[in-house]
Design goal:
The complex is a heterodimer of chains A (about 140) and B (about 400).
Chain A: E1 3-5, H1 8-19, H2 22-27, E2 36-40, E3 52-59, E4 62-69, H3 71-74, E5 79-83, H4 85-92, H5 98-103, E6 108-110, H6 113-118, H7 120-130, E7 135-137
Parallel strand pairs in A: 1-7, 2-5
Antiparallel strand pairs in A: 2-3, 3-4, 5-6
Chain B: E1 17-19, H1 27-34, E2 39-42, H2 45-50, H3 53-61, E3 65-69, H4 78-90, E4 95-100, H5 102-117, E5 126-127, E6 137-141, E7 153-158, E8 163-168, E9 176-179, H6 189-208, H7 214-236, H8 241-261, H9 265-277, H10 281-295, H11 297-310, H12 320-337, H13 354-362, H14 377-385
Parallel strand pairs in B: 1-9, 2-3, 2-4, 4-6, 5-8, 6-9
Antiparallel strand pairs in B: 7-8
Helix pairs in contact in B: 4-5, 6-7, 6-8, 6-10, 7-8, 7-11, 9-10, 9-13, 10-12, 11-12, 13-14
Classes of the chains: A alpha/beta (about 140), B alpha/beta (about 400).
């Protein structure tokens, strides 16, 4: 049964999908730069009443923990990537490459860009793992 | 040259520029029109003390001159930017005027962020993280190469972490670029050649990039055409204002192109040997460029054939691949004509160093926009080897 994005349930399912991915394990094996917070901007028209973040505690190819948080906690993470609901949906559907999205200002990155781009293959695998979660988008 | 059906892009650059010999004399008028009354000039000690450039700017600013921060350093550090911002704050600056090459312009971009957002520059590390206009900035380039006057990025060195980082935002475009060829006539020959080839690399690489778009492509081709016909003239006759002006224009156009389309493997290699062996950025780009072009001929012959045309090579009756290879040969010849004959071995680099160079280039952000995936260390080393 499809899981609403974003939600606690979706975040848990995504963590499981990510940790089941051998490709991510390989691509992210040298990641030691701390958690990444992904922020979905509020979209009250579809029920996302406030900015919602989910934080991925990534370390050496493993997602040690994943949880929904508020903006305050998200902004304390070393990397924060912010986008609208529509843009995250495009990323998950592979219609927007996340690195290209950052270059074009469609996604906003707080943190060290050179570190992120060094892990471009890991970023692709992070996106790939979203396709393993049966997702229900709130605007559909 | 075709584009994919899913083409999508954003194209942005500095909104206004003025060009002309002695146009720097109109700076004061421009600031009046922009509503600014306290300008801090951001430059380096050499330009401030050994040339008349700062005096010319001060004269134009007249009563609007609020001071000069003359401690710009090559490859600006976070501390140098924070110091500059503190100075500008003390002087109650309402506009920054950068005067110099990429380091001065990047320093002013960083100062603008700290003045507006507070804190220190590294607090604002990120890409498109800024959400509002920054302190106004007028960029006056004194070299024709970096194109930083047209770009939205600043590069900051963080000695504490031993890293360079980027801060990018559409709000970092200078508000005005002043292109005055009289400010570049004193540039030494080697620096003229090297900075010119930096601009050439921006133009050719942005044409090869996966982020290219019809606007950046048009800009790139025009920049290549201008550089190929004017750089040598600047060297033959350093006070040729026409050629100097054309080079300033080409550098700005190429800056716009790569600010939007990015650069590729060539810059990744140039950044690497710049950091490891202190090879001038433009010289390093020139060194690798023909080899990078040959390396990408299998996937980008159509684009490199357009480069050939812009370089003045007749492409009728030959295949794209033949034209691409002729373009690479022409760049190699052009390097010799302008005196850029440096090789990696001149800087002590040996075959044994190539794996480390390849490894470091692989982690450079520029490499990811290359027209074919470049993940193989041997492939990268093979390109670098050609420049030994």
């Amino acid at each position: 049964m499809p899981i609403d994005f974003p939600s606690d349930e979706w975040t848990t399912a995504y963590q499981e999908a990510l940790n089941a991915s051998e490709s991510y394990k390989e691509a992210g094996k040298n990641w030691t730069h701390g958690p990444i917070a992904l922020v979905v901007k509020a979209e009250p028209t579809i029920g996302v009443e406030q900015d919602t973040a989910f934080i991925l505690d990534l370390h050496q190819g493993v997602c040690r923990k994943a949880w929904i948080s508020d903006l305050e906690e998200a902004n304390k993470q070393p990397f924060v990537i912010t986008g609208s609901y529509a843009q995250w949906k495009m990323v998950m559907r592979k219609q927007l490459d996340p690195i290209k999205g950052m270059m074009q200002g469609k996604l906003r990155l707080k943190g060290n860009l050179p570190i992120i781009v060094r892990f471009v293959k890991a970023a692709q695998e992070l996106v790939e793992a979203t396709s393993k979660v049966d997702t229900r988008f709130l605007d559909e | 040259m075709s584009y994919d059906a899913d083409l999508n892009f954003v194209f942005a650059h500095t909104p206004k520029l003025t060009f002309g010999a002695n146009v720097v004399a109109e700076l004061g008028t421009s600031l009046s029109e922009m509503g600014h009354s306290r300008a801090v000039v951001v430059t380096d000690k050499f330009l401030a003390e050994k040339t008349d450039m700062l005096e010319r700017v001060k004269k134009s600013l007249a009563g609007r001159f609020a001071g000069a921060f003359t401690d710009v350093i090559p490859d600006p550090t976070a501390d140098s930017i924070d110091l500059g911002a503190a100075y500008a704050k003390r002087q109650s600056a309402d506009v920054l005027i950068s005067l110099g090459g990429g380091s001065a312009i990047d320093t002013a971009k960083g100062m603008a962020v700290v003045l507006t957002e507070g804190g220190k520059i590294l607090d604002h590390e990120g890409y498109h993280a800024l959400t509002r206009p920054q302190t106004p900035h007028v960029a006056i380039p004194t070299t024709a190469g970096t194109g930083s006057e047209m770009t939205m990025v600043l590069v900051v060195k963080d000695p504490a972490r031993g890293q360079k980082t980027f801060i990018g935002s559409y709000f970092l475009h200078p508000d005005l670029a002043v292109l005055d060829p009289t400010l570049t006539v004193g540039l030494p020959a080697k620096l003229t050649a090297a900075t010119g080839m930096d601009a050439m690399s921006h133009a050719i690489e942005s044409l090869l990039s996966n982020l290219r778009n019809p606007f950046s492509d048009g800009y790139s081709l025009e920049a290549i055409r201008i550089i190929s016909t004017n750089l040598k003239r600047c060297l033959d006759k350093p006070d040729d204002l026409l050629a100097r002006g054309q080079m300033l224009i080409a550098a700005a156009i190429a800056g716009s192109a790569f600010s939007n389309a990015m650069v590729v493997l060539n810059h990744a290699l140039a950044h690497t040997v710049g950091a490891k062996y202190h090879i001038h950025h433009g010289t390093a780009n020139a060194m690798f460029l023909p080899h990078t072009m040959r390396f990408f001929t299998d996937v980008s012959a159509d684009r490199l054939a357009l480069v050939a045309g812009a370089l003045g090579i007749s492409t009728s009756g030959i295949t794209d691949e033949q034209a691409a290879l002729q373009a690479a040969d022409r760049i190699e010849e052009f390097n010799k004509e302008i005196g850029l004959t440096d090789r990696l071995s001149d800087y002590g680099v040996t075959e044994a160093d190539l794996p480390a160079i390849a490894d470091m280039a692989l982690t450079d952000g520029s490499i990811i926009y290359s027209p074919k995936p470049v993940f193989d260390l041997d492939e990268i080393a093979s390109v670098a080897r050609k420049a030994l």
